[in-house]
Amino acid sequence: NAGVTQTPKFRVLKTGQSMTLLCAQDMNHEYMYWYRQDPGMGLRLIHYSVGEGTTAKGEVPDGYNVSRLKKQNFLLGLESAAPSQTSVYFCASSYSGYPPETQYFGPGTRLLVL
Amino acid sequence: GEDVEQSLFLSVREGDSSVINCTYTDSSSTYLYWYKQEPGAGLQLLTYIFSNMDMKQDQRLTVLLNKKDKHLSLRIADTQTGDSAIYFCAESIGMRNNDMRFGAGTRLTVKP
Predict the structure, then answer these.
(1) What CA–CA distance (Å, rounded) separates B48 from B35?
(2) From the centroid of its chain, how far is CA A52?
């Protein structure tokens, strides 16, 4: 049982390049989330999904797209990376989506955009 | 303000108590949480408290909630080097998990 895994762990991009971050969970969770964490700031929700085939915008969705084609995977795409997207990206999942049920977090992807 | 606020750093000696403080934003928040992040790992739920409680104790952890001041604290008794990590305060500001607000995290360093 691996929990929540993220690929890659670290990536350097040039401005304008595109990339996809992959999140996978093996807990059969319905809900999945993408957050970003910037220095001195709390985690901010980018997009989330309440089930396979669904996506919804979070607090800071601009510049990102997501897809949930399979229940266990949640992909975060950057079509044209910008230096402002330099951040640590965390994926999380939960079963019901309602508090106080915890979210299970992946180890993070550190992205540097030059 | 709209930010969950925490001190960024705390350093204690092994065996001492650690107190990590947090000021949250919404007086109607239903649940308040403490997450722990160890190096190279994701956030892991440590404990949570329902908003109608003042205190919750779980082994070495004590959570205190002051709703009037919107203040949450986490006390770790007999702090060990293994407690060194980043501790995040979070609040549920809505009915679902996508309505959570996180603090920036407090880095706790435990010196032997």
Answers:
(1) 9
(2) 15
How many residues are listed for chain B in this entry?
Answer: 112
Q: Which of residues 8-67 of B touch A (CB under 8 A)?
A: 8, 30-31, 33, 35, 40-45, 48, 50
Instruction: Spell out the residues 6+ positions from residue B94 whose beta carbon is closer than 8 angstroms to its own.
Output: none
CA B76/CA B17 separation, integer angstroms: 6
**Spatial separation of the C-alpha atoms in residues B109 and B79, rounded to whole Å:** 10
- Asked if A58 and B98 come within 8 Å (Cβ–Cβ), the reply is yes
Minimum-distance CB partner of B98 among A33, A100, A101 = A33
Token pair in block for residue B107: 């880095």
DSSP reduced 3-state for A75: strand
Q: What is the pLDDT of residues B65-86, one digit of tens each?
A: 999 999 999 999 999 999 999 9
